[in-house]
Design goal:
By secondary structure, the chain is an alpha/beta fold. It is 47% helix and 13% strand. It has an eight-stranded parallel β-sheet, with helices on both faces. Strands 6-7 form a two-stranded antiparallel sheet. A hairpin with a 2-residue loop joins strand 6 and strand 7. Helix 6 packs parallel to helix 7 and helix 7 packs across helix 8. The chain starts with 5 loop residues before the first helix and ends in a 9-residue tail after the last helix. About 2% of the residues have low confidence.
Length: 340
């Protein structure tokens, strides 16, 4: 199917909210990982979200070019072409964007989409994330308010983060401590600043112990009930039982019951990156180790072209990542729910 229109993306989010499931949002950084994500969603019978981070966008532009906007637009163009051949709906999203990268990433992409929409076209991306977790809450929400207006004009959904995700991603690192738990007061401040949909649709990543990367059991203390308390805190202001559309960041390595509880409390999107990176790389390593003398010209030999052809190990890597996407869909209860 074509990449989801803004209306189709809204219908996807509504379906997840009413059906009590969430979409995996798979980070990619190449055509291979994009194809693997598409394959996984198709095999699961699930619509989904495919996204690029600032680092992923730089890499997609060429590792010596490092232009986030170029990489993002190239990704969007490629995805728009290849997604047509898959029987599920796919939305495109840009992941974590801190304050110092807004002018080189989200704002120019929004400007490009705004111009395209004015000329009768569709936005390049269905949603963009502003990561204000490193700035004071008042500044975070002030910037979010400005970006929400811009997104609304371009028919794009905004994603924000209120709280701090621990661990490291794309050079942004935070300690694992009590700052990882968003308070009900922060949730109320968010609703007061941005509304509950009347000023434009937005997704909210509240933090409940989330950590980027994978840690040994016991190191990460998830408290999904933080999300429930946030929903309860704003109910009087909004009159809604589930005012927030939540995003689960730092979900790699989470237990199925923790994921399920988060979905029950309003999560409709969950970012998956570390687990799919490993699922992609592990089969490639296995192939290299088993075909060592084929992929290398050992002791002056010629090797085996069929072994060092990137397609040989690339297909295995893509299949491994696709299988992990299917697992994510099953854990988030989105498997078999495509809205067609």
């Amino acid at each position: 199917m074509p990449i989801a229109t803004p209306e189709k993306y809204a219908a996807m989010l509504d379906a997840a909210k009413s059906g009590s499931f969430a979409y995996p949002a798979i980070n990619v950084s190449s055509s291979q990982t994009l194809n693997a994500a598409l394959q996984g969603f198709a095999e699961a019978g699930s619509d989904g979200i495919i996204q690029v981070s600032t680092g992923g966008a730089e890499y997609l532009s060429g590792p010596t070019v490092k232009d986030m906007v170029t990489g993002s637009l190239a990704f969007a163009a490629y995805a728009a072409e290849v997604a047509k051949n898959y029987p599920v709906n796919i939305a495109l999203h840009t992941d974590h964007c801190p304050k110092d990268k807004l002018d080189g990433f989200v704002r120019p992409l929004l400007a490009a989409s705004t111009e395209r929409v004015k000329n009768g076209g569709l936005p390049y991306f269905q949603s963009h994330m502003w990561d204000g977790s490193a700035v004071p809450l008042a500044e975070n929400l002030q910037i979010a308010e400005e970006l929400l207006a811009l997104c609304n004009a371009a028919n794009v959904v905004l994603e924000i983060e209120v709280g701090v995700v621990g661990g490291e991603e794309d050079g942004v690192e935070n300690e694992i401590n009590e700052k990882l738990y968003t308070s009900p007061e922060d949730a109320v401040a968010t609703i007061k600043a941005l509304g509950s949909g009347e000023n434009g649709r937005y997704l909210t990543a509240l933090t409940f112990g989330n950590v980027h990367g994978v840690y040994k059991p016991g190191n990460v203390k998830l408290r999904p009930e933080v999300l429930l308390h946030a929903q309860e805190a704003v109910k009087e202001l909004t009159g809604k039982d589930r005012a927030f559309d939540f995003v689960f960041h730092g979900g790699s390595g989470s237990l199925p019951e923790e994921i399920s509880a988060a979905v029950d409390y309003g999560v409709i999107k969950m970012n998956v990156d570390t687990d799919t990176q490993y699922a992609f790389t592990r089969p490639a390593v296995d192939f290299m180790m088993k075909n060592y003398d084929g992929v290398l010209k050992v002791d002056g030999e010629v090797g085996n072209k069929k072994a060092y052809d990137p397609r040989a190990w690339g297909k295995l890597a893509e299949a491994g990542m696709a299988a992990r996407v299917v697992t994510a869909c099953e854990n988030l209860r989105s498997a078999g729910t495509s809205i067609g």
